[in-house]
Design a protein that fits this description.
- A six-stranded antiparallel β-sheet has the order 3-2-1-6-5-4, sandwiched between helices. Strands 7-8-9-11-10 form a five-stranded mixed β-sheet, with helices on one face.
- The longest helix has about 80 residues.
- It is built from nine helices and eleven strands.
- By secondary structure, it is an alpha+beta fold.
- Helix 5 packs antiparallel against helix 6.
Length: about 375
């Protein structure tokens, strides 16, 4: 019917009360296999509920509650039966009669089902115990079914979220790979291929059998050397050969900085990372640093750059700052040649980290990323 389990127990308690002629019916739930706690019912008043309190209930206990729950005792008592342990219990609860049976589902002990204050003058009957036992078994099965359905619903929700996350991750990875390809093609086109095109034009000036055009020859030689340098740098950034060695991350970053220094940009490196990191983590950090350095090299017109790598809050904190021309951060997504910055950002976020860039025209740039080690 779509109602809650609490509503079900209330309606069931009302039905049971009518079947056994009881004023009140109460479910006692077993908590942590050591305590019985009231768990709702029918005909419960504030004054009666004020008398209810959690009670000890253990498999080896010899008290009434423990014997009912764990030893299948059927408890029946009325005040006219005279003074006894049962009479003290009735006095504590403020009722004239009571009956209780185990609340179970198969071998699983869920607690106790009790009825109080029989409308009959002689109190509750043996037949009433049979009704309560059947109701207790039915309620136990419904309870287990309800919890099984809840567990199933939660499992379905978790699987749905996991599948949605998997699809999002696949989409993001596809996007990142495609952007990496675009960046690679853009760098190849804007650098090496343009130099080769210029070299081809100078080569056309060198006619076979004619006089050597010294100017064209020198320009051709210079362009071919620059093309070789650009291609070597591009191949190095894709897969630095020394990255897999024990001190590979430090060596790879220093090798990349040597290329940067050769272009006239001074560099300073502060490195405080453990070399025991996985190869995947080293590769990720190198790509982040290489991406930032490449951006400085191509666009910043800087004369110096500072790189800092350290462990902070269980992750790797990296900062790359330069003294170049800078740019308006709000407009960086519209600036040409900034695919690398977008890739740097997406790698940080997909690894569970964060990313920040600070820059203003004329005051340089500062890129910061944090990637968790776990």
């Amino acid at each position: 019917s779509g109602e809650s389990l609490t509503t079900f127990f209330h309606e069931l308690s009302k039905t049971i009360a009518g079947l056994v002629d009881a004023e009140k019916v109460l479910f006692w739930r077993l908590k942590d296999q050591t305590t019985l706690v009231p768990d709702g019912g029918y005909g419960l008043t504030r004054s009666f509920e004020a008398r209810l309190a959690p009670t000890r209930c253990e498999p080896a206990g010899d008290d009434i509650a423990s014997r009912v729950v764990f030893q299948d005792l059927v408890f029946r008592a009325a005040r006219q039966d005279g003074p006894s342990e049962s009479g003290d219990l009735l006095e504590t609860l403020g009722v004239a009669s009571a009956i209780s049976v185990p609340w179970r589902a198969g071998n699983a002990r869920l607690g106790m089902l009790a009825a109080y204050n029989s409308w009959r003058r002689g109190g509750f009957l043996r037949e009433d115990a049979w009704v309560l036992q059947k109701a207790g078994l039915a309620a136990g099965l419904v309870t287990q079914l309800w919890h099984a359905q809840e567990d199933l619903r939660k499992s379905v929700d978790r699987l749905t979220k996991v599948d949605a996350a998997r699809q999002l991750l696949l989409k993001n990875m596809t996007t990142v790979v495609e952007k990496e390809r675009q960046r690679f093609v853009a760098e190849l086109h804007d650098d090496a291929l343009q130099k080769l095109t210029a070299a081809e034009m100078h080569a056309a000036r060198l006619e076979p059998g004619g006089l050597v055009d010294t100017e064209a020859h020198e320009a051709l030689t210079r362009l071919l050397a620059d093309t070789e340098t650009a291609l070597r740098r591009l191949v190095f950034e894709v897969h630095p050969p020394s990255l897999e060695s024990p001190d590979g991350l430090t060596r790879s970053i220093n090798d990349r900085l040597a290329m940067l220094n050769a272009s006239g940009i001074r560099s300073e490196l502060e490195f405080a990372l453990p070399e025991t990191m996985s190869h995947e983590m080293k590769a990720l950090i190198f790509r982040q640093v290489a991406e930032a350095i490449g951006n400085v090299e191509r666009h910043s017109k800087a004369s110096e750059v500072k790189i800092s790598l350290s462990v902070l809050d269980g992750g790797v904190m990296g900062t790359i700052s330069d003294n170049g021309v800078g740019f308006a951060v709000a407009e960086k997504s519209n600036l040409p040649g900034h695919l690398g910055l977008q890739a740097l950002k997406e790698r940080s976020l997909m690894s569970g980290g964060r990313y920040k860039i600070e820059s203003q025209p004329g005051v340089g740039s500062r890129i910061e990323f944090w990637i968790p080690l776990d």
